[in-house]
Every structure is written in C-alpha cells, then in structure tokens.
Amino acid sequence: MSPAQGLEIPGWRIDTGWLEECRSSVVRMNHVVRDPGTGLIQPRYLKERSCPACSNAKWEFAFVSEDGFEFSRCRECGFVGAQKIFTPEAFRVMSNAEPEAACSAGSPLAKKQLDPEAIKADTKRFRAYLRDIESVVKPDRLLDIGCATGNSLLTAKKRGWQVIGIEQQKDRVERAEERGLRVLCGTLHDLWGHPELQPGSFNAVTLWETFEHVPDPEKTLRLIFQLLKPGGVLAVTVDSYDSMDYRLLKEKHPACCGFGGYHGHINLFNAVTLTFLFKRIGLQPKKISSTGGINLELQAAYINWAWNKIGSFKYFEEQRSSQQSTDSRPDSPIYNTLTQYPSLSPRLTAFVYLMQPWAGGISNNLGIGSLLFCIAQKPFDSSSDDAA
Ligand SMILES: [Zn+2]
C-alpha cells in the first residue's frame, strides 16, 4: 500500500494513513452538527467562552479551520483559539448519530502510539523532558494528565517516579492498564475528589500535548495548582502557534480543528500567552523552550499535494480515486476542501529523510519548533488552596 515502498529505509517510514483515518471519522461525526449550506458548525451546538489566557471576552475573527470551526484572536493578550466550542449536547448528538466513528476517532492514534518506533521516539523525548523536571524536583509522585497509552508514564516509572495517569479515552486507558499502569478514566474535573488525587500530594504534574484540548485551561490549572506540593512543578508541551508548521499551513494544519468525540486543538498557545496564563495562576515559569522541530511529514505531504495538483505526477490522483469508492462524504463546501490527507511520494520521502534532522534542529533554535516545552513551579510559600 505504501507509496514509500520503493524507498523504504529500515527502521524509518512515513505513514499518514492513521491521521487520515482519524479525520475521516471526525468528518462523519461533524456532518450531523454542521449547517449543510455553509459547512460551518450550527450555532446551537456551540457555546461561547472567554479568552483562556486572560479571561477577557474581546475577540476578533482569525480564520476558519478545515473542519468548519471558527478561530479567533484575543484583542487583549493575542491568544488564538476557538471562541465557540462544542456543547456537551453536540458531543451527544454526534456520538448517537455516528457511534462507530465516535468510538474509532482516536483509535488509529492510540495504535500508532504503541508502534515500537513510536515508543522508542517517545521514550527518548520524555527522558529529555524528565531530565529538565528533575533539575527542579527529585523523582517522587507524578501525575500525567492525558497520558494516552502510557509511554510517558512508563518512561517516568523507569526513572524512579511513582506514577499515575488520567485519560479520557477508554480504549487508551485499557491499553495503558495492560502495560501495568494505574490510569483513571475521565477528566481532572470529573475525577476531582478521587482518593488518589489528594491536594498537595504531587511533586510533578505533566500534560504532554493535552493542554490544546482543554475547554477551560484556567480552571484546570487552578486544580493542578492545588494538587501540587509547594515547590512542585507543572510541565507541559503544547502545539506552538509560532511554529513553522502553523506559519506555513495555517488553517490547513490538520491538528487545528474542533474535532468530534472530544475537543480538538481549540487552544493555540505561543510562549507569550502560555507563560502569561501560568503567572496569572501563581505558577513561576522556570523554563520555556522550542522543541519538536518542523513537522516535515505535514509540510511535505502538502507540497506533495500541490505537486500532484499541478499534474507533475499522478500518484495522488490515483490514490484519491481508489479511496473515493469506499468514502461517502456529504457534498458541502467544507467537505470539498477536506481532501484526503495526502501521503508522501517516494521522492518526497527521500527528501524528508534527508531534511528532518538538521531542519528540526534549526527550527528549534529559531524558536519555531512544532512544540513549546514549559516548566513552571508552585512557590514554596503558598498553601495548596491559595489560588483556588
Ligand atoms: Zn486574552
């Protein structure tokens, strides 16, 4: 199946099929809450929120994502994100109408995270993040919120941390439990008061690419503040809105969406808005850095898509016509822009392979890496409920 078969390099391959599978489920779910005329989400399935970074409600229009979700910019602090997010009713309507899609939307990602290569890459980066955390606090109790299938928890456990995770998706909780991990199913808000989540009991709370999905980041941070011991640290990675990925792809970035079974990337922080929010809660930023490089997989796939558009080679067209036979997407303006997530041609596979290491390093040094890594510390002189 792989377009890269001719150039397959042992231990290294590009597979965007999982992302297309996720998106296809989301497209099917979103269809039931979408206005068929405009392609936008119907207003009755959306609720307004104030700016997650500064709490003001002075928004201006920024762009519409590929899945018909409106993104706005805060006029006070510059934060970019979804001003209107799905209501609980919208999630109910979507999962009732498309139960199969609702169950499977996140599965390809969960499967990908258990791929031996993904585990190896995750272990490497989580080790680096933990080294930074351990320069501030010694390994003791760690809570990972949005722990997925548990790659981060296993890495921390091997370094001497006592770990526990929280995860919203049931299938991922089951995979993590099979790996011998303790994971609670739900959100931090649902689970508040759980005996294993005592205020003032954690030295570290981590959220790896989770904070983008949180509907009320301020409220979540206030709960995390209470969970931390004085001197404990919060460590996060988030998609960076200052990244090369967002600068080039903008609203076409596949992670920039309202999503279906749960909230998608509705918060697009940059270093300024993220540290602003942390300070407002009373957390002291200790380190903020650019990481994750350029997602050349995304960039190259779009170059490939454009290349095929102008007819230089027909690979993409052939792939699309073979997939359309099994894909019944409704006819609406937005669906027509939601083309198949383009896979890589053999030539671009080779190009990406050569570019990845140095382009990633350069973009991190320039502060335009795909992720922001931030560590913030709870002051020693604050009691656990000061900021609540
Ligand atoms: Zn703001």
Supply the key terms:
alpha/beta; disordered C terminus; seven-stranded mixed sheet; Rossmann fold; 388 residues; 13 strands; 18% strand; four-stranded antiparallel sheet; binds zinc ion
Give the overall shape.
Answer: globular
How are the strands ordered across the major sheet? 8-7-6-9-10-13-12
- Order of SSEs, N→C? HEEEEEHHHHEHEHEHEHEHEHEHHHHE
Strand content: 15-25%
Number of strands: 13
- Mean pLDDT equals 82
CATH topology of the domain at 124-321 and 330-377: Rossmann fold
Separate helix tally: 15
> What is the CA–CA distance across the termini?
53 Å
Identify the bound ligands. zinc ion
Proper CATH architecture of the domain at 124-321 and 330-377: 3-Layer(aba) Sandwich
Largest sheet: 7 strands, mixed
Written overview of the protein:
This protein has 388 residues and is of the alpha/beta class. The protein has a domain at 124-321 and 330-377: Rossmann fold, CATH 3.40.50.150. The protein has helices at 17-31, 88-97, 99-104, 107-113, 116-134, 151-158, 170-178, 188-191, 217-227, 244-249, 271-281, 296-309, 315-324, 333-337, 346-365; strands at 46-48, 59-64, 70-74, 80-82, 84-86, 141-145, 162-167, 183-185, 202-208, 228-239, 267-268, 284-291, 371-377. The strands form three sheets. The protein has a seven-stranded mixed beta sheet with strand order 8-7-6-9-10-13-12, sandwiched between helices. Strand 6 (141-145), helix 6 (151-158) and strand 7 (162-167) form a beta-alpha-beta unit. The radius of gyration is 21 Å and the shape is globular. The termini are far apart. Mean pLDDT is 82; it is low at 1-13, 312-317, 319-340 and 384-388.
